[in-house]
Structure formats: C-alpha cells, structure tokens
Amino acid sequence: EVQLLESGGDLVQPGGSLRLSCAASGFTFGNCGMTWVRQAPGLGLEWVSVISDDGTTTYFADSVRGRFSISRDNSNNTLYLQMSSLRAEDTGVYYCARGPVEKVGDNHNYNGMDVWGQGTTVTVSS
Amino acid sequence: DIVMTQSPLSLPVTPGEPASISCKSSQRLLHSNGLHYLDWYLQKAGQSPQLLIYLGSHRASGVPDRFSGSGSGTNFTLKISRVEADDAGVYYCMQGLQIPRTFGHGTKVEIK
After folding, report:
1. Which of residues 22-81 of A touch B (CB under 8 A)?
2. Nearest Cα to Cα of residue A16 among A74, A86, A105
3. Tens digits of per-residue pLDDT, B13-35?
4. Which of A27, A115, B40, B68 would bridge with B53, disulfide CB 3.0–4.6 Å?
C-alpha cells in the first residue's frame, strides 16, 4: 500500500525548533519529488516547500525561507522538514505529499500531489 | 506570485444535480510543453487533501468520471456531472507552473 506517515509535530515555544519526518512506503521514494503543505487552523492550504527526487533542488515559500530546510534520505525512504525560529503563524497541520513530479526513465512527469499523509500538528505558543 | 481566485466560496448542491467551480489565475498557466499546470484537490471534513485533477484535465487514479477539469490560459473549471453525498468538502485549485505553488482559497461544497 502506498503510504506517507508524518511525525514530529509538537507544542513548541516561539523561537524554538522542530523537525518533522515523513516516512514513505509502497512506492519508489527516490523517483519522486516531495512536497510539504500546511494548513493553519480553520484556514486553507499553503504550499511550504518542495524537494527534487535526488534532493539536489529545493524551494521554499517566502514565509519560511531562511527558517525552514527540507531534506530527504532516499536510503531510508524518509522526508524531513527542519523548522527553526518558529513563530505563532507557523501553527497548523503539516502534510507531506508525493509529487508533483516523478522521474520515469529520463523524463520527469508532472502528476500532481497524488499521495498525502495524515498530517502532523505543530503548535507554536508560549 | 500567481494569485488563484476561486468562485463561488460556498456551493450548496442537490444530490444528482451538476456542480461547477471556477478558478482563475493571475497569470497564464500554459507551459512551453503545451500543458496547463493546474490541479484540483478535495479536502473532506477531518481528512487530508486528495488529488482529483492534474494538468488541467487529467483525472487522478481512482477518481470517478463524474469529475472533470477543463480550461486554458487563466480560466479553469471543475465540474461534477452528478453530485453525490460523498462529494462534500472543500475544493482547492492549485497552480503548479511557478514556484511558489499557490492555492485558491477553496470552495466549500455542501450537500442539501
């Protein structure tokens, strides 16, 4: 079964740090770009960051650039989001998602974010 | 950043009737490869989002054929041919052409 399982969410004080993990199973993790999306309480979806299949290319939303980093361990099928200098506005549910790009042979196909985890909750509060 | 504008914000629908959601982007979503980088996601109450449509009109695996996506340039539409009770939730469009990816604010579909 294709699955993503996030962990690491917690209550943290403003200015603190946290590392989220996303364990992947049921598919060839190393062939897939991976994305983090978050959702503040009662609000819509916000794209946070993306990493390429080989981990060499990363991008961030302006709201987190310089404070968050994304990485992956393809040997252990795990995606990470390292968060530092956390602010109250970082509070929310963080989802990891497969995609939107998958490497197939020499091609990179855009398939949308087709598998999502259940989410992990980050609360930034004193 | 590309701004995504959805309408309506709320859509009450009767089971068996059609429904349509509009998504407009502030820039054209046409890539040089001829594809439109526009996705549709559904988030049911208490659940994670799920992909419905990618590249404007491609149904994701397992998505019923009553869902269809269309559009070009800056104007896109998600249509449900015959709404079912299980279709309730918030529908989001998202552009995949540029970084940062951006979502619309969502359309809440409520079943009458």
Report:
1. 35, 37, 44-47, 50, 59-62
2. A86
3. 999 999 999 999 999 999 999 99
4. B40
